[in-house]
Design brief:
Layout: H1 9-18, H2 21-59, H3 63-114, H4 119-123, H5 127-169, H6 171-218, H7 220-225, H8 229-281, H9 296-338, E1 349-356, E2 359-362, E3 369-375, E4 382-386, E5 391-398, E6 407-414, E7 419-424, H10 430-437, E8 445-450, E9 453-454, H11 460-465, E10 467-470, E11 479-480, H12 481-486, H13 494-504, H14 507-510, E12 520-521, H15 530-544, E13 548-552, H16 560-574, E14 578-582, E15 594-599, E16 602-607, H17 609-615, H18 618-624
Parallel strand pairs: 7-14, 7-15, 10-13, 13-14
Antiparallel strand pairs: 1-2, 1-3, 3-4, 5-6, 5-8, 8-9, 11-12, 15-16
Helix pairs in contact: 1-9, 2-3, 2-5, 2-9, 3-5, 5-6, 5-9, 6-8, 6-9, 8-9, 13-15
């Protein structure tokens, strides 16, 4: 899915930076001190020295008489440069704190917001592209904030300071330099604009290339198995060539700009010297605040100031590209922050409960009983409904996009303690139904009720807390085995985690690991077999102890012998709970209370294993092998 950069990027960026004004103010003060000393003092000192020497020549004053005046200026210069050195040291320290602190808070804000985004966002965006926000885009902003913005401020202060000094001594000479500067600015705008266009494209292609690399790394085994190395190289080469073209064109224009501006500055220098000589030769009256006539004492400092003025403009041009890339990165980041968070209008919450005098009430301490806390807005009362795990669909329609409905008129009843199985070909809608129970997506039409409560009224965090889920694709996190089991319930004790592992059948292999439950796991579980990862996922669901379980091919990665061990644990885990099972192995769903056969988003058969076999419909064909799940 293509994303447009956020609107008002510059305004939002400046607002964000000035939001940290207490830290930014000392940085600006130090920068002004440094720049004022560097810009103004050399020109002023040079003018004073030339004036003193000129007076000594005209009046015949000896060096011994002139030296005290010159040394006084030198001492003043040394003091100011010392202040500039101290301000420079302070600036570097403060700028590091400001830049990294700003970006650290921005990354926190990005990640916090990303955690609020719906599953739909991650289903429609490549992980490599999302990762690029935290790497390339943030780094582009870092360079812009720490280098380009300060340089722009330095150049702006320097140009303003030098221009004021020039106008103080001679308006005529100042206008000559200003006129030459307009030429430099026009060239910068034309060439820099073309460079900026390609730098923005480069930022986009960097994210695309990272997405390809991430995809190829994740699919490394599949690429090897099917001998698709050549195709993988071609896919990467295509993305890399697009990045190369954008980067080449961006740098081609960028590298052309500096030599052109450098030559323009030399032309301006020569032009200032010629104009200054002509003004002296023809005794043209000077227009200035200082009241000094046009002389060597005025023209010589102007030559130095013309080079300094042109140098300030030249220093801006390399920063244009960094600013453009930084703004492109900021635009992408603000676009991420503008992504709509997952909406949750639910007000029914999940609480620990107990029974008093035959009524369900809220408990102050954890118990084995949960209840739905239902505040009624009409009369302000609160009722408690014991969580039983009764999940029902009524005429549910759903589509990932409004124009393409994938579930049609789904009606099912998951009564407390029942095991409901979904079977059907890939794409029939089995996993989609479980996604609707979790409210990863909201339905288009119909109703879903949980213990008689419309799930739209239940707060999503409470709803998902009451549901245990084991996915076909196991996700483990970097940490110990114990940490990964405890992920199901963070307040679970070690004993509860071990009991959950025993229940799932994971305890035996865990104790054979080098450090048992304290063995560190890689984020992708690469130091375990796929079956072992699946057993840990089942243990993680077991320790959560939810009233409803969703098993999406939970035993698909386990061999037949291990499956028998796990099945005993699963039977114990499922006892007294409502369980929704998705399975391609029909042997695992034979003991289900209800089996729903799905085809293209519709329930075409329902019943027990024996009832469906007696019907001799599609389930019968699937079970006997006359029809395959394709």
């Amino acid at each position: 899915m293509k994303r447009k950069p956020a609107k008002g990027t510059i305004k939002r960026l400046l607002k964000m930076l000035f939001g940290y004004f207490p830290k930014l103010l000392p940085v600006i003060i130090c920068l002004i001190i440094i720049n004022a000393v560097i810009s103004a003092l050399p020109s002023v000192f040079q003018q004073k020295v030339v004036a003193v020497l000129q007076n000594s020549w005209e009046q015949g004053i000896s060096w011994e008489e002139t030296r005290p005046e010159i040394m006084k200026n030198v001492r003043t210069l040394v003091i100011f440069y010392g202040c500039s050195l101290a301000a420079g040291f302070a600036y570097n320290q403060l700028m590091a704190v400001f830049t990294q602190g700003t970006l650290a808070k921005l990354r926190d804000e990005m990640f916090s917001h990303m955690e609020t985004l719906p599953i739909r966002y991650f289903d429609t965006n490549k992980r490599g592209d999302v990762m690029s926000y935290y790497t390339n885009d943030v780094d582009a902003m870092r360079q812009m904030i720490s280098q380009s913005f300060p340089q722009l401020l330095v150049s702006a202060i320097s140009v303003t300071t030098i221009l004021c000094i020039m106008m103080y001594y001679s308006v005529w000479m100042g206008l000559v330099i200003v006129l030459g500067s307009f030429v430099s600015i026009a060239i910068t705008r034309i060439i820099g604009g073309k460079s900026a266009y390609h730098f923005i494209a480069q930022q986009k292609y960097v994210a695309a290339t990272e997405g390809v690399v991430e995809e190829m790394i994740n699919g490394g085994k599949v690429i090897k198995v099917f001998n698709h190395e050549q195709e993988a190289e071609e896919a990467f080469d295509k993305a890399n060539n697009e990045l190369y073209e954008a980067a080449y064109n961006a740098n081609r224009y960028s590298n052309t700009l500096m030599p052109i501006l450098n030559n323009v500055s030399y032309i301006i220098y020569v032009f200032v010297a010629v104009v200054g000589g002509l003004l002296i030769e023809f005794n043209v009256p000077n227009v200035s605040v200082s009241g000094l006539p046009i002389s060597i004492a005025v023209v010589v400092p102007f030559l130095g100031m013309s080079r300094q003025f042109a140098g300030m403009i030249q220093q801006v041009s390399p920063q244009i590209n960094s600013i453009v890339m930084g703004l492109a990165g900021a635009g992408r980041i603000f676009a991420l922050l503008d992504e709509e968070s997952e909406t949750d209008n639910g007000y029914v919450t999940l609480v620990y409960a107990k029974e008093e005098n035959g009524e369900v009430v809220e408990s102050d301490v954890p118990t084995r009983m949960w209840a739905w806390k239902h505040p009624h807005q009409a009369d302000g009362t609160i009722t408690y409904t014991k969580v039983r795990g009764d999940v029902r669909f009524f005429d549910v329609d759903f589509g990932y996009t409004p124009e393409k409905i994938v579930l049609h008129n789904i009606t099912l009843y998951g009564k407390p303690g029942q095991k409901i199985a979904f079977v059907g070909a890939t794409g029939a809608g089995k996993t989609t139904i479980t996604n609707l129970i979790n409210r990863f997506y909201d339905i288009e039409d119909g109703k879903i009720r949980y213990d008689g409560i419309n799930i739209n009224k239940i707060r999503k965090s409470a709803l998902r807390r009451s549901l245990g889920i084991v996915l076909q694709d196991t996700v483990l996190f970097t940490g110990t085995v114990m940490d990964n089991i405890r992920y199901g319930r963070l307040d679970a004790t070690d004993e509860e985690c071990i009991a959950a592992a025993k229940l799932s059948g994971a305890d035996s292999f865990i104790r054979h690991l080098p450090e048992g439950y304290n063995t560190m796991l890689d984020g992708d579980g690469s130091n375990l077999s796929q079956g072992q990862c699946q057993l840990l996922a089942i243990a993680r669901a077991a320790v959560e102890d939810p009233p409803v379980m969703i098993l999406d091919e939970a035993t698909s990665s386990i061999d037949t012998r291990t499956e028998q061990i796990v099945q005993r644990g699963m039977d114990a885990l499922m006892e007294g709970r409502t369980v929704f099972v998705i399975a391609h192995r029909l042997s695992t769903v034979k003991n289900s209370n209800v089996i729903l056969v799905l085809d293209q988003g519709r329930v075409i058969e329902r019943g027990t294993h024996e009832e469906l076999l007696a019907m001799k419909g599609q389930y019968y064909q699937l079970y006997t092998g006359a029809f395959e799940l394709e």
